[in-house]
Amino acid sequence: MFEASIRQPLVEGNKSIADVSNDICAPIENKPTKLWWLGFTLSFAFLMLMVLSLGWTVWEGIGTWGVNKTVMWGWDITNFVFWVGIGHAGTLISAILLLFRQKWRMSINRSAEAMTIFAVLCAAQFPLFHMGRVWLAYWALPLPNMFGSLWVNFNSPLLWDVFAISTYLSVSLLFWYLGLIPDIATVRDRAVTKARKFWYGFFAMGWNGSARTWHRYEIVALILAGVSTPLVLSVHTIVSMDFATSVIPGWHTTIFPPYFVAGAIFSGFGMVLTLLIIVRKVLNLQQYITIGHLDAMTKVVMLTGSIVGVAYLTEFFIAAYSGVVYEQYAFLNRAFGPYWWAYWTMMSCNLLAPQVFWFKWARTTPWFIFMLSIVVNIGMWFERFVIIVTSLHRDYLTSSWAMYSATITEVGIFLGTMGLFFTCFFLFSKFLPVINMSEVKSIIKSRE
Amino acid sequence: MGHHHISEVNDEKYIFTGRSKVIVGLVFVVGLILTFIGVNQIKHEDAHKSGAANVEEHAATNQDLPVHTVGMQDDHQAHGDESHAEEHTEHAEASHGEEAHGEEEHAEAHGSHHGPSWLARLWANLLLNSYYFMLFAVGALFFLAVNYAANAGWSTLLKRVIESITSYIPIGILTLGLVIYFGKEHLYHWVVYLNQGLDAGQPGFDKILAGKDWFLSSGWLLIGVPTIMIIWWVFRIILVRLSHKEDEQGGLSFFKKSVIYSAAFLVVFAFSFSVLSWLVMMSIDPHWYSTMYSVYNFAIAFVTSLTVICFFTLYLKSKGYMEVVSDEVIHDLGKFMFAFSIFWGYIFVCQFLLIWYANITEESIYFAQRLTPNFKWFFRSNIIMCFALPFLILMMRNAKRHPKVLLVAGSMILLGHWLDLFIMIMPGTVGQSAQIGVLEIGLTMAFAGLFIFWVLNNLSKRNLYAKNHPYLLESANHDVGV
């Protein structure tokens, strides 16, 4: 395909095909660095915190959380939506950017997809344990049973969520694994130890790199991309309907579905940036994940952040315009009620902060982007907190108004899922190629 | 695929022949004549009806409006008092329910109360067409800006076609501005209400409308709306001028400037288009609100303008121009039409489903009025034409590379979204007697004639390609890959 001369190369450093294999297989073939061990140990410690906190929740009961009759959803569902949202960048990059032929996605899709899967695993913890009796979690599935009237409620968006998210997890996992097969085969073919040859050989599923194999691979990848594209929209659409189908002021608003999707992509790219800025430094991949990649991703962050900002202002405007006093109160209470700090944190992190990316310096300075990406993560966590807690804590009956604050157990679970997420990610970066070698090889300029 | 590399794009110029001018002019003139016939036909029917109907109803004049507005409030209340679990569908199906038909009666009365029904219908249609064709122009400007901001190369050959469609913006400003200025009493009953200047406690006082006077005011409507459209026009002028200079002088500087202005336009557009859609369209039903409404209007604007771009390109190709625009480019345009038909469907479902599910009377009233015996077939056809058919037709790869198939699917999209606007505008202006007759067809033809004439005329003034655009050859050598 012809390319205009003003397009910048996607991979820098005049890499040859052998360089790509050597550079990207290096972390797998060499002993992990001290920095890796440090990060892994720390993450693992937090993972243990999750196990501890969840264990305590199951042992003692949901009373160990700060939720009450009025604010029946607190940090749990906030974290659930937060983590599901994080996952969206992976699917967007692998599916929608593939359909848009955005080749810069090739250096980042593998790690973003991995991130998706780990984030969905983290998200799943919260609704499961919020059920109280987690060992009955399978009741959420429409399984034929002998319990009399026990059957799922198909009218409930919460059940739609069960289907949406399990579909999302399975398709993402398939997509990720399919893309890994040729690369796992590369590691197998380079293996010097028997164990490595055996295990990578096992997971490469007999990949032989023939034209026929590639042909099939590409067709399957395209079909999966087609299947994943509606998934990008559907998952967070359904999550938003957990709120929007209700009649609670601040929750029931028709713009929620696309606004949640934009917010999810926004937070997902925030997390991708956080991770990749570390990865490119620690694994020495600056020539693959270039400043150009960071530039493109910050533009996506700015775009989706602004879409979310327009949605915030639209909601606020329509609440004022509606003439419904409950709507109006819900929004004033958000901005000026007891949780005002959460609202203004959300506004400044999500709407204002990303506007710095209008400046080229901000888009091309890694340490600055890193800081901003954390700001975005914080902002999006607060968005869910604002939506959930401030809408619930003052309902139609003033006698049932209540405040909510998280307990140490809830904080422990949240930090614990961070541990789970990063533990998975460190293991991934040690045992699997973090960049899709076979795809990157197709776009290097010095191709023979 | 498989075609040889193109290293140079030869300049072409479109000639708007006398014959074409006559044909397009005829569409315009025939449209006007049909409009005239349509109006007379309705006048005739009115006279016929009023002979049979009661005389008091007919004697009612504009002065009666406050009473009428009270009627509306009461209807809302009555509506709210009923348990409304399944009522909406029944509401629509039942032909002669008593209290359930309050809204409809109201809407019927609405048309006649404002004066002769042909006048209400004429204004409503003028608004529909002014807005509809303006959406093409501003949607095309949005697409132009998106292509710059996203560094897209594939569509560069179509740039002049897109720019020519945006040249309709000043006509859009003029038509929409005039319709709103002179027709506001017929289109927006909040305008009539505000003119009464009622205070709390007076009969006919509407608390909801009174609470909205900070936004639903003639200031916003008569100054805000034109200002917004003029801002778009300014961006259009800047972008086209940069494109001109690029043609003459070459170099990258104009391209870089265009990227900056495009990004700025996208920000301005997001806010201003929302405000415009609330004022021009949502305020037709001033008690009702939906946060999705502006997104819904955007979805209409984008998918229709993509279709119009596709149609003009196919027309030029059929006349022997634009040989260099390959099936690959048309294919991608078809993909966009496909994708944004789905996007419209998504936005439609989200808005409808959430309102239907929560079933809050103040919100569901909007769909209740659109699922009545008079409107339900329009409503259903709308979904089929805007989503189902384009989705099924354009799904096939070859459909997107075949001009005739694209023409069929695109016509569905364009007619479907005309109907979409019809459903949005009519219940609040004309009421339940709204129909598609000679007037509707004639006026749309007249506007279409004007639009096509204007765009083709603009197109004939310049080169068909932006010859110094850095991505021109990318577009000429475009390949969709699979």
Could you please say which CATH topology of chain A applies here?
Formate dehydrogenase/DMSO reductase fold
Sheet bearing the most strands of chain A, described?
none
CATH uppermost class of chain A: Mainly Alpha
List the total number of helices of chain B: 19
Biggest interface, chains and residue tallies: A-B, 36 and 42 residues
Nearest-integer average pLDDT of chain B: 86
Distance between the termini of chain B: 9 Å
Oligomer: heterodimer
In the residues of chain A, how many domains can be counted?
Answer: 1
Task: Give descriptors for this structure.
heterodimer; A: 448 residues; mainly alpha; Formate dehydrogenase/DMSO reductase fold; 15 helices; B: 482 residues; 72% helix; 0% strand
What does this structure look like?
The complex is a heterodimer of chains A (448) and B (482). With 448 residues, chain A is an all-alpha fold. Chain A has a single domain (17-137, 150-443), classed as Formate dehydrogenase/DMSO reductase domain (Formate dehydrogenase/DMSO reductase fold, Up-down Bundle), CATH 1.20.1630. Helix content of chain A is 69%, strand content 0%. Chain A contains 15 helices and no strands. In chain A, α2 (34-60) runs antiparallel to α14. The model of chain A has no long low-confidence stretch (mean pLDDT 91). Chain B is mostly helical and 482 residues long. Chain B has one domain. Chain B is built from 19 helices and no strands. Chain B has helices spanning 18-52, 55-59, 65-81, 87-93, 102-113, 117-149, 159-166, 169-187, 189-196, 207-211, 218-249, 253-280, 293-318, 327-358, 361-368, 376-395, 403-429, 438-459, 472-476. The model of chain B is unreliable at 54-114 (pLDDT under 50). Classes of the chains: A mainly alpha (448), B mainly alpha (482). The interface between A and B is large, with 36 and 42 residues.
